[in-house]
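pasting for ref
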Amino acid sequence: GFVTVANTETADHGATILKGNQKVLSARLSDAKFFWENDLRVAKAGMEEWAEGLKSVTFHNKLGSQADRVERIAALAREIAPLVGADPDDAMRAARLAKLDLRSAMVGEFPELQGVMGRYYVEVALKANPPRPIGERRRGAGRQDRHADRVLGD
């Protein structure tokens, strides 16, 4: 079930509003299922398609592509990792994986899922638990989570 609020009186006591909302919700969930299934195919193949795709996404016209950004974040993560007791190779790996979901169909349609979907795709791709920062790097992107954990580069 779900809840919808409409500040309107209708002759059918909201039946038309409810039916319309059910159709919209059903369509969105169907879209999400389609994107999930297609993205899983890319994830199972190793996500190289998404890594390549980041090269064609401009981060900033003076700073290059998202792929360039990822490499800068990875280099910084490698340097900073020993200072916080983390393994430099793990930090670099996490940084390289952290932005791949930007190219997924799910995040393209539902941008608020950036980072959340990345964790699931990495789990599928690597058949292992991803480094902790991948699932947490976007927590806090909403207005209510101002003090949530962040990862370098966000």
